[in-house]
Write a structure and sequence with these properties.
Layout: E1 2-8, H1 14-23, H2 37-46, E2 50-57, E3 60-69, E4 74-76, E5 89-90, H3 98-104, E6 109-116, H4 120-123, E7 126-136, H5 141-151, H6 156-171, E8 174-180, H7 183-201, H8 211-222, E9 224-225, E10 228-237, E11 240-250, E12 253-261, H9 270-281, E13 289-294, H10 298-303, E14 306-316, H11 319-337, H12 339-348
Parallel strand pairs: 4-6, 12-13
Antiparallel strand pairs: 1-2, 2-3, 3-4, 3-5, 6-14, 7-13, 7-14, 8-10, 9-10, 10-11, 11-12
């Protein structure tokens, strides 16, 4: 019989962490840095309402489920919208009683939007499916290129090389650094990414203006362990930083998180040059998978050779809460796609 114990992150001692790390070996998905206990620890420093359910079966610890209490009734994923992989670190072969877990978490509602679909007990409560596109580099860059060529247009990297030559001609020699520890470049990326958020979706959606998020990302940048680290990659043209990316690495997996490029050089697609360079040098740095995260952006589809299925939904007790949310989401989606929705968006833009 399964048992759940709720603990604080501070209560995760050396023994519990060792078990957690062992559980990560039970699924390739768990190799994502989001499932490393260091990520949960950092989020707990940034937001003190992070808790962990310890999952036991027949008096043996079989998993951990980090979550974040939003209030007395509602919980969500650790790190909220920052977190691209969510859910328990426990063998996918174990079917967890999710409603019992909800009671153990002492809430009535728990939403998720980046849950691996292999967690069937959560997928049963989902209302939407998505995927996280990936670059499989386990066989090296040449093998990746061969797969990419078979899947879609082989000209992607030729176009990127042409843009490299044009950018070099205009701005100077290119210099790519796969793993940079430059704080100045890290801060430049955050500044550029904030400007991008403000320009494209408005100042209220600039996540780096939120103190706890900025603190957490700064903390991740400071991590340098091979098993969990912040990873900054930069591309210079002459003396100018034209593109950068900040993500997280755990072992052989790089999660591509916050890419940015200088729009003054947009005609040369410096962001694509940067991602192509990361793919080329991945093997030299022991990286076998670059995970681009959820979303169907064109650049992700052009570079990806595989994907990880995800789902979005919620568990709730009573079920009525979840049913109301599903109805609300459906109404919003229908309104968005309707003529009235288009008129409302046009009105907002004026």
């Amino acid at each position: 019989m399964m048992k759940f114990s709720q603990i604080s992150v501070d209560e995760i001692d050396v023994v519990l962490e060792r078990v957690w790390l062992h559980q990560r070996n039970l699924s390739p998905v768990f190799q994502s840095p989001y499932y490393h206990p260091a990520y949960t620890r950092i989020m707990a420093v940034a937001q003190p309402d992070v808790r962990v359910l310890v999952i036991e079966d027949h008096n043996q610890i079989i998993g951990f489920f980090p979550f974040q209490r939003k209030n007395a009734l509602v919980a969500g994923p650790v790190g909220g919208s920052l977190t691209d992989y969510q859910g328990p670190v426990c063998s996918p072969g174990m079917t967890l009683p999710v409603l019992e877990m909800l009671r153990a978490a002492q809430v009535h509602y728990m939403g998720f939007n980046h849950m691996p679909a292999e967690r069937r007990e959560f997928a049963a409560f989902s209302w939407e499916q998505s995927r996280s596109l990936t670059l499989n580099l386990a066989g090296g860059f040449d093998a990746y290129m061969q797969t990419l060529t078979q899947l879609r247009d082989a000209s992607l990297f030729k176009k990127t090389e042409t843009n490299q030559r044009k950018l070099t001609k205009k701005a100077g020699p290119l210099r790519f650094v796969m793993e940079s520890r430059s704080r100045d470049d890290f801060l430049a990326l955050l500044k550029g990414k904030s400007a991008q958020f403000i320009k494209t979706v408005g100042a209220k959606h600039d996540i780096f203006a939120v103190p706890w998020i900025r603190d957490a990302v700064n903390n991740i940048f400071e991590q340098t362990s091979p098993e969990f680290s912040g990873m900054l990659s930069t591309l210079y043209a002459g003396d100018h930083l034209v593109a950068a990316h900040f993500g997280m690495r755990s072992g052989q997996v790089l999660h591509y998180w916050f890419p940015w490029y200088d729009t003054d050089y947009a005609e040369f697609s410096p962001g694509l040059i940067l991602l192509a360079a990361c793919a080329r040098e991945a093997q030299q740095h022991g990286i076998t998978l670059i995970d681009l995260g959820r979303g169907e952006q064109a650049y992700k589809q052009r570079f990806a050779t595989d994907f990880i299925p995800l789902c979005e939904g919620a568990i709730a007790a009573p079920h009525l809460i979840r049913d109301v949310q599903m109805c609300y989401r459906s109404l919003r989606q229908n309104l968005k796609q309707s003529a009235a929705g288009k008129l409302i968006r046009q009105w907002k833009q004026h």
